Amino acid sequence: MTADTVDRLALQIPTMQQWVPPLQRNGKGPSAKQLQWCLDPRRAAMFGGAAGGGKSVGQLCSALMFVDQPHYRCLIARETLAELTEPNALIDMAHQWLDDTTASWAKLDRTWTFPSGAKIVFGYLAEHNVQRYLGSQWHAIFLDECTEIDPTAARELRTRLRRVKGDTIPLRFRVSTNPGGTHHAWWKKHYVDRGLLVRSFMSDNPGLDADEYRITLREATTASRFAQLADGDWDSVAHEGASWDPKDIIFVPAPDPSRIMRYVVGVDTSASASETADECGILLGAELLDGTLVVLEDHSHRARPAAWSAAVSDLSRRYTADVVVEGNLSGAAHHSGLFAADGAMLDRPHVSGSKQSRHVVTAIRCRRGEVVFAEGLRGGPLVEQMVTWVPPSSGARRRGGSPDRIDALVMLVHLGDGATSLATA
Asked: Residue 355 has what pLDDT?
């Protein structure tokens, strides 16, 4: 996008203000940071930082900028329907702004239609609902609390951002969030670290009692979560209840082959390749002569037993790697035809106890520096899962599916111990 885009966006600010009655009543426009967000000329950008920074208001303001254009189509989405419809969320906010205007609301379709014919659709992406939005083309897509949204769904949605020749409405892919969330690491890597972030802080929201809110956050959260919510700290990623703290994950260069005693493949199986199935966790590691276990590669993916068995067996052949997989399996995974290469061992330990107890034992090994990780895994889905997955037994609602990669790590560490059964804390 060019300077012409900035000019085009600036021309639409009066249109946006026309549809925001609270701004008219107060005699104010958006805050300086919200106006910066509305005028951002980039095709893709993130509005993120501290809680209370005015991100949701900024998103809705930006979405309203082109509702005077008859063919304008905009999607505003969250991960779940419950999050979309809860009090003071975006649908509720839109009603507060638009109920007394000439725009009309269609409850069944969750769509606002404006006198021009422009439409803003509210949607949710969980439970494969993302599919219903892929048959349309959109001028603008806004994702709220994007760190809880699967990046695969977000990338697929972005492919529907398009317009016809001669259309002058800028195409915009806009996401907003606080640090933290199930997919924190991916969004940080692809947006924050690439300079696509417009940072917002409590001080950017003139209507917020920031001092009082900071007190509330400090009393209600852990130190790590406080740093995320109060200060917008993207480098603080540990979740309360997660077994790993980021500082306990040590990254190292790939080891010299002369230091490697043996290679190991840890597997957490899956029985289906359906879109709702868990992935098969597959990790390649190397046990060094000094006893350190280095996790080298993450080959986890969603596949049928025959396919992931072939992938595991191929890894075993390439590295003459031992394979460890849970022995007390059920269903199709028992008959997957899994095998280890000639000269390698196939171990099927019996697993007992809770996931959390097994994770804690493995996390302690990491904390001691006995299990380390290759640099290439930094910021990837394995590390993201380690610091964000919270077991349901800790009292938190389960988010983000099964910890397939962590369970594969547990298998990997077990074989590195040379144990015959998997002990739990």
From this structure: 65
Best CA proximity match to 150, nearest among 117, 128, 122, 172: 128
395 HSE (CA, 13 A, CB side): 3
Q: In sequence order, what DSSP letters do the residues of 137-185 get, joined into one string? A: -BSEEEEESGGGS-HHHHHHHHTTB---TT--SPPEEEEEE-S-STTHH
Tell me which residue of 21, 37, 14, 12 sits closest to 196, measured CA to CA.
Answer: 37
Q: What is the DSSP letter of 9?
A: H
Q: What is the model's pLDDT at position 396?
A: 42
Q: Decide if pLDDT at 332 tops 50.
A: no
CA 1, distance to chain mean position in Å, is: 27
CA atoms within a 13 Å half-sphere pointing along the CA-CB vector of 153: 25
Sign of the dihedral through C-alpha 410, 79, 380, 363: negative
Reported as half-sphere exposure (CB side, CA atoms, 13 A), residue 337 has a value of 9
CA-closest candidate to residue 340, choices 365, 312, 362? 312
For the stretch 153-201, pLDDT in tens is 999 999 999 999 999 999 999 999 988 877 888 899 899 999 999 998 8
User: What are 55-66's pLDDT values in tens digits?
Assistant: 888 999 999 999
